[in-house]
From TrEMBL:
Pfam (any one): DAO
Gene Ontology terms: cellular component: cytoplasm
Domain named FAD dependent oxidoreductase: residues: 30-385
Protein name, as recorded: FAD-dependent oxidoreductase
Xref: PANTHER family: FAD DEPENDENT OXIDOREDUCTASE DOMAIN-CONTAINING PROTEIN, SARCOSINE DEHYDROGENASE-RELATED
Alphabetical list of InterPro entries matching this protein: FAD-dep_OxRdtase, FAD/NAD-bd_sf
Organism field: Pontibacillus marinus BH030004 = DSM 16465
UniProt superkingdom: Bacteria
Gene3D superfamilies: D-Amino Acid Oxidase, subunit A, domain 2 (3.30.9.10), FAD/NAD(P)-binding domain (3.50.50.60)
Length: 430
């Protein structure tokens, strides 16, 4: 099964798309960026604003990877809870990370407003739906931690209160964070790309970077099938689609996990507004969780892990996800599924994003663990600041040492690989 061959709802319902030519011959610039998703587009955008000449190389098309295939949920926080991050990192770092999370949504809103990008941005918050009674208790403990240590407010709902938010028999309660948002992710990507080109930036599509060579003259040369880019700086932001052939060290620190989505046919507005009453982004507390939302054209978009047994095929994966949709919203039994698609979510060993600069000069950001719709735009800005060295502050996500995934160890056994793989799958948050 190749999930990349399935057209996402977002691409099928997008604004006009600019088709871009592949690179032919040599091109010189200040910064070459590999990857035409949110991270690369944001980095180039912020550099171009400051007069840098940027070139993006995209293997497929702008937004063709995770940036155009995600659920369009721009969430506060990270894959792990803030309580866990507080315990691991300490209060100062944890507060800085929560601030970054909130800043990321503010930045997206600012970019959309300043550049008049039409992408259905709504900041109505998100719901965490509790799958068990014990999960409600955990949400209450998280609420207490957020208030006590971060002065941050979320509302916890008992089962009878959740009906004011969700019309679903599956859940036992939940919590509401008012600061999250949603958008049409593909329209944001192509809108940011058009904005970047209007500022003088260059994007080459259908142009795969095949080799990176760091020359002694402080230049980097990126080879492609029909040309080269010669630049002063390089940014690698291919996340879960990074190959060992391109950069072995980075590739060996990323776990790419398949996530799949379905979307219903267009439904009457009163139906979708009755199911998700306040048009919030939603995800639940199951280990293999569901995430779902309303769309601006009155569909329910519904996602989950692509995990399957060895005998499962593509149809089983999507059929099981459809069953999950009906568990959450039995009223949709007669609604047809109009779209189904999938893509790769990038994880690190710490389930937190990595950003920084390697000794060979490669700038990187990846491993968003399901929160890339929010964090990737901000980390693109941080990458730009790293390159400009513009009196920037330190980012708590910056990494000096990259942690290789255990199964890349020479002596790792297949059983350990599978244990780690399923541990990751059981921890996907959205």
């Amino acid at each position: 099964m190749n999930l990349m061959d399935l057209m996402p709802l977002w691409e099928a319902t997008s604004n006009n798309v600019t088709k871009r030519e592949p690179l032919e011959g040599d091109r010189h610039c200040d910064v070459v960026l590999i990857g035409g998703g949110f991270s690369g587009l944001s980095t180039a955008y912020h550099l171009q604003k400051e007069g840098y000449d940027t070139v993006i190389l995209e293997k497929d098309k702008v937004g063709g990877g995770a940036s155009g295939r995600n659920g369009g949920q721009i969430l506060t926080g990270f894959s792990d809870s803030m309580s866990s991050i507080l315990e691991q990192k300490g209060i100062e770092t944890a507060k800085a990370m929560l601030d970054m999370s909130l800043d990321s949504i503010d930045l997206i809103s600012q970019i959309i407003d300043e550049n008049e990008i039409s992408c259905g941005f709504h900041r109505n918050g998100h719901i965490v739906a509790a799958y068990k009674d014990s999960h409600v208790d955990k949400l209450k403990k998280e609420q207490e931690t957020l208030k006590k240590h971060f002065d941050y407010d979320v509302d916890v709902l008992e089962k009878h209160e959740l009906s004011n938010e969700l019309n679903s028999p599956l859940y036992r309660g939940g919590s509401v964070d008012p600061n999250s948002a949603m958008f049409h992710p593909f329209n944001y990507a192509i809108g940011l790309a058009d904005t970047l080109e209007g500022m003088g930036g260059t994007i080459y599509e259908k142009t795969e970077a095949t080799n990176i060579n760091h020359e002694a003259s402080n230049k980097v040369v990126v080879s492609t099938p029909n040309g080269r880019v010669i630049a002063k700086e390089i940014v690698l932001v291919t996340n879960g689609y990074t190959s060992e052939n391109l950069h072995k060290k980075i590739a060996r620190t990323i776990i790419p996990i398949e996530s799949i989505m379905i979307a219903t046919e267009q439904l009457p507005e009163d139906v979708v507004s009755n199911l998700i009453k306040k048009n919030r982004a939603c995800f639940d507390t199951k280990n293999l969780l569901y995430y779902f939302r309303r769309t601006d054209d009155n569909r329910i978009a519904f996602g989950g892990s692509g995990r399957s047994t060895s005998k499962s095929d593509e149809n089983n994966l999507f059929n099981n996800l459809h069953k999950g949709l009906l568990d959450v919203f039995p009223e949709l039994e007669d609604a047809s599924i109009a779209y189904r698609w999938g893509g790769k979510v990038g994880f690190t060993r710490e389930f937190l994003p990595y950003i920084g600069r390697l000794d060979d000069g490669t700038h990187f950001a990846y491993g968003y663990a399901g929160h890339g719709a929010a964090m990737s735009t901000l980390l693109g800005k941080v990458l730009a600041e790293n390159i400009m060295d513009n009196d920037r502050g330190f980012s708590p996500l910056e990494k000096k040492e990259l942690k290789t995934i255990p199964f890349y160890s020479q002596h790792a056994k297949v059983v350990n690989l599978m244990k780690y793989y399923y541990k990751v799958l059981d921890s996907i948050k959205n």
